[in-house]
Amino acid sequence: MLKTILKSKLVKTMENIAGAENVLSGRDDLIVYSTDSTNIINPKEMAQAVVFPHSVKQVSEIMQYAYKKSIPVTARSAGTSVCGACLPKKGGIILDFSKMNKIIEINKDNLLCKAQPGVIIEDLKKAVEEYDLFYPPDPSNLKVSMLGGSIGLCSGGPHTFKYGSTKDFIIDLEVVLSDGTIINTGSDCSKNVTGYNLTQLFVGSEGTLGIITQATIRLIPKPEAKRVMLAYFDTLEDTSKTVNDIISNLITPSVIDLIDKNTINTIESFYPTGLLTDKTAALLIEIDGFKSELNEQYEKIIEICKNNNSSYIQTAQTKEDEEKIWISRRSSFGATAKLAPNVVTEDVVVPRNNIVTLVKGIREICDRYELKTCIMGHIGDGNIHPNIALDLRNPVEKNNFLKAKKELFELAISLGGTLSGEHGIGSEKSEFINQALNSNSIKIMKQIKKLLDPKNILNPNKIFTEE
Q1: d(Cα 232, Cα 221) in Å, to the nearest integer?
Q2: DSSP labels for 271-323?
Q3: Would the pLDDT of 2 be above 80?
Q4: Domain stops at, among 221, 236, 255
Q5: Are 133 and 105 in contact (CB under 8 A)?
Q6: Is 330 buried (19+), middle (13-18) or exposed (0-12) by CB count in 10 A?
Q7: Total structural domains within the chain
Q8: H-helix or E-strand containing 389?
Q9: Is pLDDT at 5 greater than 60 in this prediction?
Q10: Whose CB among 77, 195, 289, 452 lies 3.0–4.6 Å from 148's, allowing a Cys bridge?
């Protein structure tokens, strides 16, 4: 009875701040908003209210109330996290930013954009392209992924190899701290070493240090032209050597992604685009820049691919051809999802010279535990994504997956790698963080968390295991 009374008071307070039309508290709604792409549903870890704020003022007032009452608050964008980053592990309030979705300004002269956290990444990219500008980060779910979550997890995507990830394009953040205090972390200047770099502290912090309510984004001029190709190989060794040879020839592709045979076959089974299914792997390569320089780069890449035994090279001749190749690449997750009720996408990174060992090791681990696995990723920066299809309701499959996941992370770390390149840690990788970071680093991170969130109400039980 007491719990019901407390819950009603919480909901009523949220309605007073944000409006009754912007608060959900029904059980069905709470179940939906207390899950993400990890497919984890725990009735004991549901929020008591979902709030859709419209302004930084409302967020500040909500945080003031939450701080006073020690109520956990979890920020949420599109809910596409694959590491449990937006699960309300301690219940409380979910702040859904889908209604704070305005692009506030695009400044072509200063090469920047100001936007709210609910802006969809694809919409942002299209909006700035109308000004002949370019925002490179492009997570595979960019059609639904929102800016706030992308910043919170420091997402990347295929273009990270040449241009960098989200952290390289955020120059200022408006952030609400755990007690409701509003701060700005940077400025509109592209160069700024005035004090500590607070912006980078919040990028990738998964909502554990503060709530992002606006971002100032650095943009670059849109490349004049691009060329896209798929090169097929019969061995992983040839695939990897091709990447190294391209780079050693002073060519920096805008994209250089790996697609393994299982992924190719799975895509062709469900979203056929004409991929060659008898090859061990394919490289998706995109180059961009001035038209005058692309032909020379293209011819050199073709030569390198052939010298490394590429058995077939498919080059896009039209915009439609380019789109077809990209559809095949972005269909990998959806295609894998056709194989079983659940798909778990992992995200590990190793130095590029250890990619072959990593990919073969992932295949051996998953085969040993009888897990269906499609491997793809950003081979240029060593970031590999095994998409594992299974039925999490089957206790045997689930147990096999948990064992395989542990070995996968141990393998990546043993190869000089780490747990995540762009998906974050969330709750799903927190138990492994002690293997990836030394104790002194973890101690400092926890001290930062304690300083900014003394009551541990901001997305608790994420990144670090509960003590």
Answers
A1: 32
A2: S-----TTSSEEEEEEEEE-HHHHHHHHHHHHHHHHHTT-SEEEE--SHHHHH
A3: no
A4: 221
A5: no
A6: middle
A7: 3
A8: strand 383-390
A9: no
A10: 77
